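Progress report, Aim 2. The chain analyzed during this reporting quarter is listed below.
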Amino acid sequence: MSAVEGDGGFKSDGGQGEQELDSKMLQIQSKRFYLDVKQNRRGRFIKVAEVGAGGRKSRLLLSMSNAAEFRDHLIDFTDFYETLDPPNPDNVPEDGKLKSSHIIGGTRRYYLDLKENQRGRFLRVSQTQPRGGPRSQIAIPAQGMGEFGDTLSKLLEDYGTDDQETSVELPESKSMRVENKMFYFDIGQNNRGTYMRISEVRSNFRTAITIPERAWTRLRDIIGEYLDKVEEGPAESGDAPANSEEVQAEQ
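Predicted structure tokens for the chain:
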């Protein structure tokens, strides 16, 4: 498996008013996957294209916010996949499904199914069309899910998770691992203002909270207060604990 970076240059798609901001290519087994960050009058989005051994192409479109959610699901599926026993051709699940999830994003829905068949394990990602019609789908070999997620994360760090184009330069996304958990900090902007989305992702679990910019200072102060308390250590033995009335008054 390998990833190849595009030149990050600015390309225009002529009459459609579509501009390509960046492109990455992944080679996973016999398949090539292209992850292109594009922009049009409605904002930024990511186009994912799968090219099979015979040259057949399949495509998905993801808004930047949906791409961030997809990244979180990829981590969850990868962690689950790593806990599985080796495939047993004589004991394949009846429907082939090992784990499923979905993403609801605006007028589109995405269905994620980790499946197994005689050829191995893979993640099938299906996208419904806004006004009906056939689904479009791609299939990612299971052992390539981690690399696919890492590549997607890098694009989101560089271009953000905000769907709308903005003239304000937003801070880049951050992430950190704590034991078996991953935390992602993504800054976005919508018609209500700037916000921070904090996602916690671990095996079989994903949750996220959104904090508006006006609350960031208070959040920093609260965390700072806790850090000060921890650094001070336990109270001196001579200090009497506050009684219940004092605690209630402080709250």
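The two ends are 55 Å apart (CA to CA). Confidence is low (pLDDT under 50) at residues 6-15, 240-251. These observations will guide the mutagenesis work planned for the next reporting period.
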